[in-house]
Automatic annotation (TrEMBL):
Pfam families found in the cross-reference section: MMPL
Annotated ranges, domain Membrane transport protein MMPL: 46-378, 439-738
Gene3D superfamilies found in the cross-reference section: Multidrug efflux transporter AcrB transmembrane domain (1.20.1640.10)
Subcellular location: Cell membrane
Lineage start: Bacteria, Bacillati, Actinomycetota, Actinomycetes, Mycobacteriales
The protein's name: MMPL family transporter
TM ranges: 220-241, 248-267, 273-291, 312-337, 343-370, 408-430, 566-585, 592-614, 626-650, 671-693, 705-730
Native organism: Nocardia yunnanensis
Keyword tRNA processing set for record: no
GO cellular component: plasma membrane
Record keywords: Cell membrane, Membrane, Transmembrane, Transmembrane helix
């Protein structure tokens, strides 16, 4: 591989304007095609095989339309309306204001006129009539009152301030979530203005109010930090802009391909943000690696063209395999079985692919185009400590020598530190973001808070128990339902449970349960688990089957499903990367320690994130379960980057070892050459990810922190302390491989041995040493 890349590098350097023109033409053609065929990005969630799907099937069969409340594509909203303190909504003045609000809501253009919003006061009166109970003015001490009136849209069960909070559900005529416009959101919220003016508090939740992330801030921060970091890394200003140019080509082409895919596929709205973030960082990282090697080769080669060819042949080979690890990690997200994770992973893999292609094809042409101006003007304070200068004493070589002197000490320190940070990870809890995770000044949070005060925290995630009675004898159905209701009510986590609502065909029934705690609380998840475990007993006795759905049940199902996918996903990705690194390093222990080191950095990352965001240590953030998708996305993104840093740093060490240095000296020399590049690349990625912490949303903050911490722990502790320490301790055994395995593995020659042999064979005869005969 190194020979082919070497030849291409020399050709691209020499025929620079042809290569650059071809890339410009490709960007314009692919970009124009993508823009012409692009359709809007759409958020659609599907995860087959969830236990809650059983309840949905029963609802769709026996209660048509009842499952629409849990369809993410149905555009809906829930208005939470509260009377002023000390008053009720049934007071004449407040009731009039509520009626006025309902009238305004019914006239709204985007309201589904076939299903107008219900009057909560009238609906509350109607609920109890079949059972002979007045839910508005009846005897609230009646033991049957709570069961009949628990589902009332007015908080009649509130013991301290009843009838003061109401819920009004609205369906909108907007076809799907991706069609919501800002004007629609404004109209949906502003419809409550007259009621607010009359003294009522009107807040809105639901997907109608969910705003799309603006994006762009993290990318701009990342580019700004990257420029500063590269100016320091190269000790020159012009060279710092070359990786930015490759990033523009790589990300621009990848985004066009992603937009091209929207013509046929439902691509999530977050895909371009994730893809551009990955593309910018990787394009800059790979370009930095090649430019750094080119700077070194300029000092030892006969010509800039030769230096460019050698840089692409050696560093370019490492870039290809580093990129492959990222592609494997991101494409492997499709294994999880969640459609939007699959598309985001594929989008990220496309940008990683383009980052590699741009680095090895366009970069040598840009090196030729800039010529002798590339490393000018130099920054004296930085340039005087050049890691590509064999005789320069940098901080990198000082630290490498320290590791070489006391590898056991540095190894133990790294493991102990990561172990201590990992300890809180045993308490990891996963959930999905709800209103309580929104910024406190948003109507989404205020609606959640208001509903909690009026109806209890569990009202934000009610349970729907759909019962299939088709196999239950008709004369046993009433008894079976009564026993089931008694069983569900007996669980300590259940606050209220409605009486059963029978379907028209009599073969199904529906209960609505209100847990005592919120959707993401462990107590609520335990309640769902206990209720589901009881089904086998009722099925054996009555032939009854039932399913549980609702926000709480779906949250639980998704969290458990994703948690169970982590180990298989990590095994597949790590296994594939191990085989790839086996080819790169031609060693058993180096790929193995690379994977084990990643597990340590991930454990430390989960521990630190749990400590700050789930447990609220130090009071920096309100405690919340971590979003269910965070572990999978974190592993996919950081694993690819971790293997990047492994390849960048350790390939240079292997190159020095193959070319004759001892294992310890090879580690020190490779560290000297690679530390600044890895440090620069890690700082850029940490800056990009940390920018997400500027978001008001606690979910975005936690994801930004976790990804930034993952890169920090893996790059600076695992790759730059733990791995070099192990290499120093293992000595030559670090590079050991069984001879039989060495023979059957293809020789990809990342260290450039074949390239060195080619140069020696093609050198002029007079340059070779004469052979003495006789």
């Amino acid at each position: 591989m190194s020979v082919y890349l070497y030849r291409w590098g020399k050709f691209a350097f020499r025929r620079k304007w042809i290569v650059i023109t071809a890339w410009i033409a490709a960007l314009l053609v692919i970009g124009g095609t993508g823009a012409a065929l692009a359709k809007p990005f759409q958020d659609s969630f599907s995860m087959p095989g969830l236990p809650s799907e059983r309840a949905t099937e029963i609802l769709d069969k026996h209660f048509p339309g009842a499952s629409k409340d849990f369809d993410s594509n149905t555009v809906s909203g829930t208005y939470v309306i509260a009377a002023p303190d000390g008053e009720t909504l049934t007071d004449p003045k407040n009731a009039a204001a509520l009626q006025g609000f309902l009238a305004d809501l019914g006239k709204l253009d985007i309201i589904d006129k076939n299903k107008p919003p219900m009057d909560p006061i009238a609906a509350t009166k109607q609920i109890g009539k079949p059972a002979g109970i007045d839910c508005l003015e009846g005897n609230r001490a009646d033991p049957n009152f709570a069961g009949v009136c628990a589902n009332a849209p007015l908080n009649v069960l509130n013991k301290t301030n009843p009838d003061s909070v109401a819920i009004v559900k609205a369906l909108y005529s907007i076809p799907k979530f991706s069609d919501i416009k800002p004007a629609d959101q404004d109209a949906a919220y502003d419809v409550g203005k007259s009621a607010r003016d009359a003294g009522l508090q009107v807040e809105l939740t639901g997907n109608i109010e969910q705003k799309q992330a603006a994006g762009g801030a993290s990318e701009m921060i990342g580019v700004g930090v990257a420029l500063v970091v590269m100016i320091i890394a190269f000790g020159a200003i012009v060279a710092a802009f070359v990786p930015i140019i490759t990033a523009i080509f790589g990300v621009g082409t990848a985004m066009a391909i992603v937009m091209f895919g929207t013509h046929w596929l439902t691509v999530p709205a977050f895909t371009p943000t994730l893809a551009s973030m990955i593309g910018i960082a990787l394009s800059i990282d790979y370009a930095m690696f090649i430019v750094s090697r080119y700077k070194h080769e300029l000092a030892v080669s006969n010509s800039p063209e030769e230096a460019a060819g050698t840089a692409v042949g050696t560093a370019g080979s490492a870039v290809i395999f580093a990129g492959l690890t990222v592609i494997i990690a991101l494409a492997g997200l499709s294994f999880v079985g969640v459609n939007f994770l699959t598309y985001m992973g594929v989008g990220g893999a496309i940008t990683a692919t383009m980052a590699v292609l741009v680095a090895v094809t366009l970069m040598p042409a840009l090196l030729g185009a800039f010529g002798g101006t590339l490393f000018k003007p130099k920054l004296p304070l930085v340039a005087q400590h050049d890691p590509e200068d064999e005789h320069s004493v940098t901080n990198g070589i000082r630290f490498a020598r320290f590791i070489g002197k006391a590898p056991a000490l540095t190894l133990a320190a790294a493991v102990v530190l990561l172990g201590l940070l990992a300890a809180p990870a045993v308490n990891l809890q996963l959930g999905l973001p709800g209103g309580d995770s929104m910024p406190k000044d948003t109507t989404l949070y205020k609606a959640y808070d208001l509903q909690t005060k009026g109806f209890g925290e569990g009202s934000n995630g009610t349970l729907m128990v759909a019962v299939d009675l088709s196999k239950t004898p008709a004369d046993q159905r009433d008894q079976a339902l009564e026993e089931l209701r008694g069983k569900l009510k007996s669980y300590p986590g259940m606050d209220y449970l409605t009486a059963s609502q029978r379907s028209q065909d009599g073969e199904a029934a529906l209960f609505t349960g209100v847990p005592k705690s919120g959707p993401n609380n462990k107590e609520t998840k335990d309640l769902v688990e206990h209720a589901r475990n009881a089904e086998s007993d009722f099925n054996s006795r009555y032939g009854m089957e039932y399913g549980i759905t609702g926000t709480t049940a779906i949250y639980t199902d998704v969290s458990q499903a994703l948690l169970h996918k982590i180990i298989p996903y990590l095994s597949i990705v790590a296994g594939a990367a191990f085989l790839l690194l086996l080819l790169v390093f031609r060693s058993i222990l180096v790929p193995l320690t690379a994977a084990l080191g990643f597990l340590l950095s991930m454990a430390a990352t989960f521990g630190a994130t749990v400590l700050l965001f789930q447990e609220g240590t130090f009071g920096l953030f309100d405690p919340h379960p971590l979003v269910s998708f965070l572990p999978i996305m974190l592993i996919g993104l950081v694993f690819g980057l971790a293997m990047d840093y492994q390849v960048f740093l350790v390939t240079r060490m292997r190159e020095e070892y193959v070319h004759g240095k001892s294992a310890k000296d090879a580690m020190i020399s490779g560290y000297h050459h690679g530390a600044r590049v890895v440090t620069s690349a890690a700082i850029i990625m940490i800056s990009v990810f940390s920018a997400f912490m500027l978001d008001d949303n606690v979910v975005a903050k936690s994801m930004g922190f976790a990804m930034a911490a993952g890169v920090f722990f893996d790059a600076f502790i695992v790759r730059m302390i733990l791995i070099p320490s192990l290499l120093a301790l293992l000595g030559k055994w670090a590079w050991w491989m069984p001879k039989w395995l060495d023979r059957i593995l293809p020789d990809i020659d990342v260290e450039g041995s074949k390239l060195t042999a080619l140069k020696e064979a093609s050198a002029p005869t007079e340059d070779k040493q004469p052979i003495t005969v006789g």
